[in-house]
Amino acid sequence: MKLIGLVASGASSFQAPIIIYDQNEVDAKEEQFIVVSDYKRGINYLGVLRNVRRYEPFLQPYKRTSYVDNPSLVDSGTLPHSTGYVSIVGVISGGALLESTLPPNPGSKAYVVEDPSELKVSFESGLTIGSHKYSGLEIPLNPLWIPYHAAVVGATGTGKSRLVKALIDEALSKTNYTVIVFDHTGMDYVKYYPGEVIEASRIVMDPDLITNMVLRKTGLNPQYYESYVLMAVLYYILDYYNRAGELQSLTPRLIKDQPVKASGKSLTAEELIGSIDYGELLKIMAEQPVEWNRCLFKQQLDKAVRSLGGREGTVMRAKILTDVRLGDSFFNSLSKRDLHPADVVAKARESKLVVVDLSTEAMESRRYALASVVNELWRAIEEARTSINTVLVIDEAHNYACRYCGEAGEAVSRTSREGRKWGLGVILATQRIIDIDTDIRNNLNTWFFSKLQTPSDYEELRGYMDLAGISESSLSALGKREFYIAGLMNPLRVPVLIKVREVA
Ligand SMILES: Nc1ncnc2c1ncn2[C@@H]1O[C@H](COP(=O)(O)OP(=O)(O)OP(=O)(O)O)[C@@H](O)[C@H]1O
Ligand SMILES: [Mg+2]
Question: Whose CA is nearest to atom 15 of ligand 1?
């Protein structure tokens, strides 16, 4: 350790002003670990150096001195000195860190920790994604707090996704958590775990989502057309199985209402639609994927509108917009979907990790894919009523955990509120804190933050935690891979600056 200064008067049990020796000015860098040795009382404190300032007794900006009239005076000498303060983390005692209750005595010596071996403190083992920027001390994160949720925030390119990758690897190797990653770009995680990837374009879509997508893409007024399109979608599905010669054998599974089931009579498509078991239908659609075709869909659209008493003009309009605005590519994208969301969960359980590649999907279906998998996890919890020790990783989370993110937002919100009881945690990575729904933000208990995208993000962060003197300007000076850790997983009681390990 290197002696750099001494404690000035005015210390409290959580903060001590430091006068820095002139010859050690270059050694006093903000965010370094400092040991304050109160030798009179035999107490050693650990803290972090913050807010280093340089002063001169006569060159005060608000006082008019003779330097103003005689600029050359400054050449005959000045008397500058540096100060800072130590944000106290705790008292070092018997290898542990205890709460600091006494302010350090003025005159106590302040030492910079230059090497991890100099610190006689041992932390409980945990997840290590990097080490303290200056001392190199590894900061183990307590995995107990995974189900209390975490956020990784920082401007574009600060290294959020790499940090999350390090967290995933640590969770996989050191805990019994299952990890489900939602890769928004398909570029951040897919390449690291090629054997564990599931394409979201294989996840079966329910008739409701297909209906909504048709309505949105065609621009047909949902108030008027929703029932027509939903009916057409259901007709299409039943007609597909009928043409494949499967409908009869599938009918008992498809009927929800027991009396209808028990009667055993053969049903028309309309009757069947009236008592359909949608949960079972989705399972069937994953087992025997429906092939979608534009021309055949138009036929079903025609049938649906007419059967519901729609007019000729309504039929024409729907068919034309299907041709013009949906085209074959839309119907191709609905086909070949052979995975039920429960299959994704099962695969995750089996191999401990699954990366859902969302990149090929439209935004609406990305959100659907995420929501359907998360809802499936909740179904599993409701059934088993036991902890499921699973962590969801959502990168570019402002697309899924926002106020207007629909089903996905609701699924993440529920997880953030109730997940802790069932060992279900979520890690959100985003550039924009402000776009995360406040309900969700309030339940994020560990924060990793770096240089931020906008000043308003700094204000947001400040609203969530005691930043212990970290200023906006010190955040903006951070380099790539440099993140503060704050909150429950941080073993220290003040935010600490780490350099994330190399993630190639
Ligand atoms: N821990 C790391 N190890 C090695 N390289 C890193 C690390 N962190 C960041 N980088 C470098 O910085 C680049 C950006 O990192 P990353 O993609 O993780 O940033 P990001 O914050 O997720 O950015 P975006 O907001 O664009 O998603 C990487 O391509 C890599 O070159
Ligand atoms: Mg990223």
Answer: 159
Task: At 107, list the tokens.
Answer: 């005159």
Whether 492 and 349 share a structural domain: yes
- Residue 444 Cα to ligand 2 midpoint, Å, equals 19
Closest ligand, as measured to the CA of 498: 1
pLDDT for 262: 66
347-380 per-position pLDDT tens digit: 999 999 999 999 999 999 999 999 999 999 999 9
How far apart are alpha carbons 45 and 308 in whole angstroms?
Answer: 78
Dihedrals φ, ψ of 354, to 5°? -140, 135
pLDDT value for 121? 86
Asked if residue 129 is part of any domain, the answer here is no
Kindly state the helix (H) or strand (E) to which residue 182 belongs, with its residue range. Answer: strand 178-183
- Which residue out of 128, 161, 185, 433 has the highest number of ligand 1 atoms within 8 Å of its CB and is therefore the one to mutate? 161
Confidence check: pLDDT of 504 > 70? yes
Helix or strand or coil: residue 448?
A: strand
Domain count, the chain: 3
Same domain, 359 and 494: yes
- Looking at the fold, whether 230 and 272 belong to one and the same domain comes out as yes
Ligand with an atom nearest the CA of residue 162: 1
**275 near 268, Cβ under 8 Å?**
no
pLDDT digit string (tens) for 142-177? 999 999 999 999 999 999 999 999 999 999 999 999
Within a domain: 137: no
Top mean-pLDDT range of 5-19, 252-266, 305-319: 5-19
Ligand nearest to the CA of 432: 1
CA 219 centroid distance within chain:
33
Kindly report the protein residue whose alpha carbon is nearest to atom 25 of ligand 1. 156
pLDDT of 420 above 70: yes
Determine the distance separating the centroid of ligand 2 and the alpha carbon of 383, expressed in angstroms.
Answer: 35
Domain membership of residue 326 as a residue range: 209-334
Long-range own/partner contacts, residues 313-322 (CB < 8 A, 24 or more apart) = 314/224, 314/225, 314/228, 317/220, 318/218, 318/220, 318/225, 318/228, 318/229, 321/218, 321/219, 321/220, 322/214, 322/218, 322/294, 322/297, 322/298
Task: For residue 138, tell me if it sits in a domain.
Answer: no
Contact 254, 284 (CB under 8 A): yes
Q: Are residues 110 and 150 in the same domain?
A: no
Residue 449 CA, ligand 1 centroid: distance in Å: 14
Q: Which atom of ligand 1 is nearest to the CA of 501?
A: 1
Over residues 449-478, the mean pLDDT reads 85
On the question of pLDDT at 261 being above 80, the answer is: no
> Ligand 1: residues whose CB is within 6 Å?
154, 156-162, 431, 480-481, 500, 502-503
The residues placing their C-beta within 5 Å of ligand 2, an ion, are 160-161
Position 412 pLDDT exceeds 80? yes
pTM surpassing 0.90?
A: yes
State yes or no: pLDDT of 426 exceeds 90.
Answer: yes
pLDDT at 242: 92
Query: Separation of 165 CA from ligand 2 center, angstroms?
Result: 10
Residue having the nearest C-alpha atom to atom 8 of ligand 1: 159
Q: Are residues 277 and 216 in the same domain?
A: yes
Instruction: Find the ligand nearest to 156 CA.
Output: 1
- Distance (angstroms) between ligand 2 centre and the Cα of 406 equals 23
